[in-house]
Design a protein that fits this description.
The protein has about 160 residues and is an alpha/beta fold. Helix content is about 25%, strand content about 35%. The chain has a six-stranded mixed β-sheet with strand order 6-2-1-9-8-7. A three-stranded antiparallel β-sheet has the order 3-5-4, with no helix packed on it. The chain is elongated.
Length: about 160
């Protein structure tokens, strides 16, 4: 079976989930492919504890993120789930602390709120079929089947760039 969508995002870490939410909010029929059973990517599997790059560095703790939109939504959801986890300074950088559970549930909440996102968990991209000037389809393999997805746009958030390569 060949599935069509406007935007195919491969990799559901912070970047991939955010890209999928942004695409869906823009009106695109979006598919989000994640090889694990959970969202969060390396931010979860790598057992990281902080997201950096969200705040302006300086002498005083920032009161808001550098950018608006999804970044602020994400931080607000973290703060709501775990108000005890406040901005922390490590060296010269202000970071947002989080737990793996908070990251997974926050990304799942953001994605599930969008009617234009279809998430395939435990699914991996296994082949790319090219057509000039770009990608014709991507074959994905899930626990029960293998299928081709024909997107208008592909966003590679795998971390390794394997789809882009």
């Amino acid at each position: 079976m060949n599935i069509t969508c406007d935007v195919l995002v491969i990799g559901a870490g912070v970047a991939g989930a955010s890209a999928a939410v942004a695409a869906a909010r823009g009106g695109s029929r979006t598919m989000l492919i994640e090889k694990e059973r959970y969202l969060g990517g390396t931010g979860t599997a790598g057992m990281f504890q902080y997201i950096c790059g969200l705040y302006l560095n300086g002498d005083t703790a920032p009161t808001e993120t550098l950018n608006q939109g999804l970044v602020r939504e994400l931080v607000a959801l973290f703060n709501k789930r775990s108000p005890q986890r406040t901005i922390k300074k490590i060296g010269r950088v202000y970071v947002q602390p989080y737990s793996s559970d908070d990251l997974q549930s926050t990304l799942a909440l953001l994605c599930s709120a969008e009617k234009n996102i279809n998430i395939l968990h435990n699914t991996e991209a296994v082949a790319v079929t090219m057509r000039s000037p770009g990608i014709e389809s991507i074959t994905v393999k899930g626990p029960d089947n293998e299928q081709a997805i024909s997107p208008q746009v592909v966003i590679d958030c795998t971390g390794s760039g394997e789809i882009a390569a």
